[in-house]
Amino acid sequence: MDRLFTFFAGNDGAWQVLDARTVVGEPVPGCERVDVVQGNPGPMPDGTAWVLRGVTSYLRYTTGEEQAALAAIQPVLGRPEACCAALIPIRKSAAWWALPQDQRRDILEDQSQHIRTGMHYLPAVARRLHHSRDLDEPFDFLTWFEFAPADAAAFDDLLAALRASAEWAYVEREAELRLLRIH
Amino acid sequence: MDRLFTFFAGNDGAWQVLDARTVVGEPVPGCERVDVVQGNPGPMPDGTAWVLRGVTSYLRYTTGEEQAALAAIQPVLGRPEACCAALIPIRKSAAWWALPQDQRRDILEDQSQHIRTGMHYLPAVARRLHHSRDLDEPFDFLTWFEFAPADAAAFDDLLAALRASAEWAYVEREAELRLLRIH
Hints:
Two copies of one chain form a homodimer. In chain A, 25% of the residues lie in helices and 34% in strands. By secondary structure, chain A is an alpha+beta fold.
C-alpha cells in the first residue's frame, strides 16, 4: 500500500534529530535519528525507540478553489536545498471528532485560516499529511514538513500562527521533532 | 480499538447468508454465514472464506442540522425485531477521491440526496458505516444495515434510489449480502 508511511525513530536513519519537544500532552521518547519508509515497512530495525504510522488520504476540508490555488504553488518533497524537516504528530480531542463536518470546516478555516495561513509559506515549506486516527495509532495526524535552512524562521512563524488559532484548542497531544537530512 | 469491526465470512457465525450478489466489479466469494467481531478480532476461524475490516469514524459530510435530525430518529443496532441485515461493501473510483471536499459534498447530497434519502427510511433501517480505505482493504466502505422483515421491501427501495443517484457513477465495486440473524 503505497499511501502508508512508517516513521522509525532510533539510532539509525536518514534524518538526524536536532530537537524534540512536547508541545502538549504525553511526551514522545527521545531518539537520535528518524527514518521514513513508504509502503510495506518490513521488520522493525534494531534499536527502534518508537514507530508511528500514517496514510496519505483525500482532502477532508479543502475546496476546489483552494485546491487549485495550492496546486499552483506547493512544492514537492525531496528538494535538494530543503535539508530541514519537521515531524509534528497531533491528536485532537473527542470533542473535535464529535463535531459535524460543517462545524469542523468553520473552525479550521473560517475561524482559524489553517489553509490560508499555510499558503503564505508556499513555496518555501513542502508538506505531507498522514492520517493515523483510523489505524489505532496514538496520534490522529503526522505532518511532515521540508524547507531550506534559510526558511526555518518562517516555519517557526507558521507553527506559532497555527498554535494560536481556535482550531488548536482541540489539540490534546502534540510533539515536534526538528530534523536534518544527513544522507 | 473498539471502533474496529471485522466481518468473517465462512461456515459459522450469527448471520446466515440468504443472498449474495455482485452489483458491480469483481465478485466476493460465496459463504454460508457471516460473523461480526468488534475490537481485536482474534485468530481467523477455521473455514473462513474472506475477511473484511472497517472502522467507524467521524462524519465526513453531514452538517450539524442534518446530524441533529438524524440523531432524533435513527435507531440502534440489535433491535430484537430487526433480524434482517445487509452488508454492502463499496469501493469508489480514483476520480471520486481526487475531488475536493466541497465537490464531493455537492455530488453526495446536493445532487444525490444521499443523507436525505436515507432519512426517509428511518427509524425502520438502522445503519453503521465502517471506513476501510485507509486500512489497505479491497473496499472503501462497509455499510451494515438492520431492519425487520416487514421493512425489507422498503430497504430495497432505498438501495434502488441510491444506486440511481449521481454519486453511484463513482462506485466501481459493490457487493450485497442479505442476512438473517440465527443466534
